[in-house]
UniProtKB/TrEMBL annotation:
Record's bilayer topology term: Multi-pass membrane protein
Single GO MF annotation: G protein-coupled receptor activity
GO cellular component: plasma membrane
A Pfam family matched in the record: NCD3G
Protein's name in the database: G-protein coupled receptors family 3 profile domain-containing protein
Domain G-protein coupled receptors family 3 profile: 531-795
Family matches, as InterPro entries: ANF_lig-bd_rcpt (IPR001828), GPCR_3 (IPR000337), GPCR_3_9-Cys_dom (IPR011500), GPCR_3_9-Cys_sf (IPR038550), GPCR_3_C (IPR017978), GPCR_3_Ca_sens_rcpt-rel (IPR000068), GPCR_3_vmron_rcpt_2 (IPR004073), Peripla_BP_I (IPR028082)
Coiled-coil positions: none
Predominant location category: membrane
This protein's record includes keyword Ribosomal protein: no
UniProt keywords, alphabetically: Cell membrane, G-protein coupled receptor, Glycoprotein, Membrane, Receptor, Signal, Transducer, Transmembrane, Transmembrane helix
Compartmental location: Cell membrane
CDD domains found in the cross-reference section: 7tmC_V2R_pheromone (cd15283), PBP1_pheromone_receptor (cd06365)
Organism: Sciurus vulgaris (Eurasian red squirrel)
Length: 803
């Protein structure tokens, strides 16, 4: 801050000179004076002793800094090295706030004498090297949380697309690394990153052409002031500037409120208030310090008072009731600045160190004359390194960097008014010690945005993806640049800018907007459904009809048409068909473990019995027509009832397959969430698909074999030969189940169950209709044709005479 060195003395009067006579530097003088006067009035610190100070100003040409400071150290204008006659009032510490270049030069020189040096300017990582600067202490805290603080502000306003302008120095490189890390962790992208060397002109075209509306500027040099001054010439009122300090000099020119810096957000370290200091700065005037030539000049500059050319101190024609409140902040700031606060703490640090040193030497004989030092400045280092005290603001002060706590930050908003007037308003703060998510506190109603914004500015590469959409990165671009794609089926996103959609649970489904999961309704092929009711009624009606046919056959059991076709097999076939129709009811209604287990057993067994019965009837017809001579083998097979063993043999094989199926992977109750939107369909899972198709394949093979046998016997002559009916019935049966296979594969849910039920009913009805419909027609409508005598004697068969 303006290249100055403040030198502490004991037993001397105070003198403080400045590089430039302006209000910004003069507050540092007041902070020094205020702290020393407090200490001198305090009987508990350095009793019976008064502190004093000397002042040395750095020349404008920093190339002569080392030479000029060397002359000051020796007290000579031109001296021989390692020799001085100035022995009175030696300094014990140096308080400086120059640039790193100046501090490094003077630090190396003072290090020869182990001279304690305390800086009150911004913290510099280069000066914290204990190997190179072991005698230098920094009052300012490290910016360990500044990057997190800035990124928290960006996240608060949803600014994810920002530009970075960083000065090319060690601090700038460090903060750039911290910013990149925090931005990457929190999904904020850099539209551009520009590291600008000192004393280098910067083209503003990068800022103007960038789509980022928020620009972060970091520097501890005059770079920010020069940059913002240049930006003001372009009248860029559509950008938001975020800086790391209170840069007030940008408002020196008489801009209007449309100035580009209006609404700028600035971060500074939080510090407590010093009681009484604001009263001092607001009431200081030349009459209170008549010997202060710089105050007289500042007063003349601000209020137009004239002063005597003879002594440059006697003011004339001063306006009455002149107050610093009339003066803009960039000229004279009455509030406590961070550098002033650091000076105040540095003065107390030296005072406490001197006090501790004097206590240690209370019994040590004095060295030299009465006004000489009792010790050398280098002896203060052990105490300074361990020093820790609480200042009047209640904050802990220490010079050991390892013991310093993380600092809190204050966020200010810059308001610019006509005629160069400006106002800095505190709009928030940031505490690294607060819980996550509560570290940043803002009062948005106090923030004045630039005139280019009618509402809170937005700075994004791509507008947010709303609920129901997900982000899809754009190839070759930053992560903040993306496309928005709708969520896939049964997936939702109920927040903005979601990277992935979330799949709904199985018992829920996504609504049309894909932003909410709704509860699925449980459904199955119920008796209350029109389809379920129709199938159930059909099954019952067909089973009743089959029972009626069975009754007809039982009643006319002595007729030739019933006896000629093996009435026992006809009874078995009708009974099995009745159960075929009834077993379809197991597929309707709420599935449970019992019904799921009975379905394959009932279906497999009853259909095997039915088909094997048809096969037995066919074999019986063939054997009957092959018997041409008594005693032949065919006759013995027919007489012995060999065809009747077909039914148990075939049924035993099917029963074995069912047993293996149930023993290895039995069916179970399952839920289908994909077949119908918004519904959970409860179905019976087949368990083992292989076993299911094995059973179905066996039944199909049996049916195909029966069809082939019946087809071979279709042309055998006889009045009551039913081979043609058996052939046609098996053709219908096979056609139904061959059609079932592709349809079963292409359907799911309730439709699949309905297809199964329909196939059972259709194939059973095919057997019933093709085999028994013609016989019932003859028995009931043409009873005279059902008798052998009808063909010979034209007599009716209704006599029911047993044969």
């Amino acid at each position: 801050t303006d290249h100055k060195y403040i030198i502490f003395h004991t037993y001397t009067a105070f003198l403080f000179l400045l590089h430039r006579s302006n209000g910004k530097n003069y507050q540092l003088v007041l902070a020094l004076v205020f702290a020393i006067e407090e200490i001198n009035r305090n009987p508990h610190i350095l009793p019976n002793m008064s502190l004093g100070f000397d002042l040395y100003t750095i020349p404008d040409n920093e190339s002569n800094v080392l030479e000029s400071f060397f002359f000051w150290l020796l007290g000579l204008e031109k001296v021989i090295p390692n020799y001085t006659c100035r022995r009175e009032s030696k300094s014990v510490a140096v308080l400086l706030g120059a640039t790193r270049k100046t501090s490094s030069q003077t630090g190396l020189l003072l290090e020869l004498y182990k001279f304690p040096q305390i800086t009150f300017g911004p913290f510099d990582h280069a000066l914290s090297d204990p190997g190179q600067f072991p005698s230098l202490y920094q009052m300012a805290p490290r910016d360990t949380s500044l990057a997190l603080c800035m990124v928290s502000l960006l996240l608060h306003f949803h600014w994810t697309w920002v530009g970075l302008l960083i000065s090319e120095d060690q601090k700038g490189i460090q903060i750039l690394s911290d910013l990149k890390r925090e931005m990457e962790q929190n999904g904020v992208c850099a539209a551009f990153v520009k590291v600008i060397p000192e004393d280098t002109e910067f083209s503003l075209h990068l800022i103007i052409e960038s789509s980022a509306n928020v620009i972060i500027i970091y520097s501890d040099t005059n770079f920010v002031e020069e940059l913002l001054f240049a930006i003001g010439q372009y009248f860029m009122t559509w950008k938001v500037w975020v800086t790391n300090s209170r840069w007030q000099d940008v408002s020196k020119m008489k801009h209007l409120i449309l100035d580009s810096s209006h609404g700028m957000l600035m971060f500074s370290h939080y510090h407590g208030e010093i009681p009484g200091f604001t009263e001092l700065t607001s009431t200081v005037n030349p009459s209170k310090f008549p010997e202060d030539i710089y105050l007289a000049r500042l007063w003349h500059f601000c209020f137009g008072s004239s002063y005597s050319k003879r002594d440059c101190q006697t003011l004339e024609n001063c306006p009455q009731n002149a107050s610093w409140e009339w003066v803009p902040e960039y000229v004279f700031d009455m509030s406590l600045r961070e550098e002033s606060y650091n000076i105040y703490n540095a003065v107390y640090a030296v005072a406490h160190t001197l006090h501790e040193m004097l206590l240690q030497l209370v019994d040590t004989p004095k060295m030299g004359n009465e006004e000489g030092l009792l010790f050398s400045p280098w002896q203060l280092h052990p105490i300074l390194k361990k020093l820790k005290f609480e200042n009047i603001a209640g904050e802990q002060v220490t010079l050991d960097e390892k013991m310093k706590l993380e600092t809190e930050y204050v966020i200010h908003s810059f308001w610019n008014f006509p005629e160069g007037l400006s106002y800095i308003v505190k709009v928030g703060n940031f505490s690294p010690y607060a819980p996550h998510g509560q570290q940043l506190s803002l009062q948005e109603d106090l923030i004045e945005w630039s005139i280019g914004f009618t509402q809170t500015p937005r700075s994004v590469c791509t507008e947010t993806c709303g609920p129901g959409f997900r982000k899809s990165p754009q190839e070759g671009k930053a992560a903040c640049c993306f496309n928005c794609h709708p969520c896939p089926e049964n997936e939702i996103s109920n927040e903005t800018d979601m990277d992935q959609c979330v799949k709904c649970p199985d018992h829920q489904y996504a609504n049309t907007e894909r932003n909410q999961c709704l509860q699925r309704s449980v459904t199955f092929l119920a008796y209350q459904d029109p389809l379920g009711m129709a199938l159930a009624c059909t099954a019952v009606c067909l089973s009743v009809l089959t029972s009626a046919v069975l009754g007809v056959f039982v009643r006319h059991q002595h007729t030739p048409i019933v006896k000629a076709n093996n009435r026992a097999l006809s009874y078995i076939l009708l009974i099995s068909l009745t159960f075929c129709f009834l077993c379809s009811l197991l597929f309707i209604g709420p599935p449970n473990t019992a019904t799921c287990t009975l379905q394959p057993i009932a279906f497999g067994l009853v259909f095997t019995v039915a088909v094997s019965t048809v096969l037995a009837k066919t074999v019986t017809v063939i054997l009957a027509f092959k018997v041409t001579a008594p005693g032949r083998r065919m006759r013995r097979l027919l007489v012995s009832g060999a065809p009747n063993f077909i039914i148990p043999s075939c049924s035993l094989i099917q029963l074995t397959l069912c047993g293996v199926w149930l023993g290895t992977s039995p069916p179970f109750v399952d839920s289908d969430t994909h077949s119908e939107h918004g519904h959970i369909i409860i179905t019976c899972n087949k368990g083992s698909v292989t076993a299911f198709y094995c059973g179905l394949g066996y039944l199909g093979s049996l049916a195909l074999g029966t069809f082939m046998v019946a087809f071979l016997a279709r042309n055998l002559p006889d009045t009551f030969n039913e081979a043609k009916f058996l052939t046609f019935s098996m053709l219908v049966f096979c056609s139904v189940w061959l059609t079932f296979l592709p349809v079963h594969h292409s359907t799911k849910g309730k439709v699949m169950v309905a297809v199964e039920v329909f196939s059972i009913l259709a194939s059973s009805a095919g057997l019933l209709g093709c085999i028994f419909a013609p016989k019932c027609y003859v028995i009931l409508l043409k009873p005279h044709s059902c008798s052998l005598h009808g063909f010979r004697d034209r007599t009716l068969c209704g006599s029911n005479k047993p044969s």
